[in-house]
Structure formats: structure tokens, C-alpha cells
Amino acid sequence: MQNVKRFWRKFSRNKGAVVSLFICLLYFLVAIFANVIAPYDYDGQNLLARLKPPSAEHWFGTDDFGRDVLSRVIVGAKVSVMIGFCSVAIAMLFGVPIGLIAGYNRRWDSVLMRLMDILLAFPGILLSMAVIAALGPSTFNVTLAVATFSIPTFARIVRSNVLGVKENEFIDAAKSYGLSNWKIVSKHILPNVMASIIVLGTMRFASGILTASSLSFLGLGVQPPTPDWGAMIDAGRYYMRVNWWLVAFPSAALFLLTMAVNVVGDGLRDALDPKM
Question: What is the SS3 string spanning 108-137?
Fold first, then answer.
């Protein structure tokens, strides 16, 4: 409990991070209760009300099929947050163990890191596009594609931290007590690198949402009728000179969430860094 209070005291010094944290919590609540909050059916078409500007009836206006843009932005938040969380979880599931093994066991280091170097040689969006091309476009496959290019980043960061931690005297003491490698890694090394994992996870969450939206913008991501911010921006760019709201609102939702997550990540880094 004392550690939590100390962490919050450090974190709350960054006012921007605190505000961004509340913005993120708001997004998460909207994502959880999206189907309840959305005022209209996100795929309900009304051609008589197509391309209506923002009004009291439709706060964010309607699109070229007469669908309520606000409802689609709200449900799009659910899709984006889900992809962000799941992609980070999958990347951690594979990347963290690879980094722990490579950093602690020098015999596996060269093999595992060369495999990670192969993945890092490809730009993230191109690697994601290759995965989508092999598996086909869908929400699940987009999540796998986004997670794939995050795995080597987790592995590299964890490995570099493990290399520093394992040189400490308490690791030598644990070895002298006859503890197994598994116990040393899980009980002594992993807790000491967890701060870096948490901070990196927030950063990859934001980049994962951006990558997923980019894939949807290119037609390789979440498929209709499921709303996605990237697909909404792509569909609205043909009308943006006159019907600006089709691009403005999903773009603002995407920008605000990714910016808030990155600022929270900076706050976590400062609060969890023992040197600060």
C-alpha cells in the first residue's frame, strides 16, 4: 500500500499525465459500454438523412449511408481499445519470455536475438500488411498482425534490462542459495524489469491502435460493417471538402486517445524510474 501511495505521489506531479489518465479511463468506459451509450444502431442506414451536418439529432452528423457518426465513433472506440489491449497482451506473452531467456542464458541469446533482428528489419506497417496478406483481413488477424511487430521490441527491451539486473549481487546470492534458474528469473529478475515492461506496454498500446487504424484505412483491417476509425477516415476523405465531419470526428477520437496514452506512458516512466 505504501508503494502505491509513493507511486501516485510521483505520478501526480505530472499534471498532464493525470489529465491524460482520466481521458484514457473515459475512453475505456466508453469502450466497455459502447453498445449502451451509442444513441443509434451503428449500422442503421437512412438514405433520406445521408450527409447531414452535426445537429441536435445527430451530434456528429451522418455519413453517406445516413448512419449516425457519433454511434460509429463510440463503437469504433470499443474496437480500437480491444485491438490495442489484445495486441499488447499477445506481444508480452511472447516477447517478455524471449527477452528473459536471451538476457539470462547466453547460449540462447544469439539465436533468439537474430530471429528478433529479422522481424525488426521490416517496418512495422509492412510486416503487419504481410501478416494480413497471409491470413486475410479480419479483426482477429489485425490483432495478430499488430502484435507481431511488437514482439521483437518487448524482447529487446527486456533483454537489455535483464543483462543489467543479473550482474547485481543479490542475483549471485540467490545462486549461492541453490535456487533454480526459473526461480531466479521469476522471483528476482522479472520484478526488477516489470517497470520497463509496463511503460513499453502503454507505448505499444498507442502505436498498435495507430497501426490498426492505418491498416483499416488501406482496406486491410477491420472489415465492414464493423466501424473502425481508420476505415471511417478512409470513407469520409472523398467528402471532406464539404462534409468535414466525416473525417474530423474519427480523426479527433484517434488523436486524443493515442496522445493521452503516450502522455500517460511518459508519466509512468518518470514515476517508475528509480533514478528520478
Answer: HHHHHHHHHHHHHCCCHHHHHHHHHHHHCC
Taking residues 150-156, report their average pLDDT: 91
* pLDDT tens-digit readout, 2-53: 677 787 788 888 888 899 999 999 999 999 999 899 999 888 888 888 889 9
Which 3 state secondary structure label does DSSP give 33?
coil
**Residue that has been written with the C-alpha cell 445527430 in this structure:** 58
- What are the structural domains of the chain? 76-260 (1.10.3720.10)
- 69-104 helix and 139-165 helix, angle to the nearest 10 degrees: 40
The pTM of this model reads: 0.88
Q: Is the Cβ–Cβ distance between 139 and 222 less than 8 Å?
A: yes
Residue of 215, 196, 190, 187 lying closest to 153 (CA atoms): 196
The angle formed by the CA atoms of residues 14, 15 and 21, to the nearest 5 degrees, is 95
Handedness of CA 39, 21, 97, 207 (dihedral sign): positive
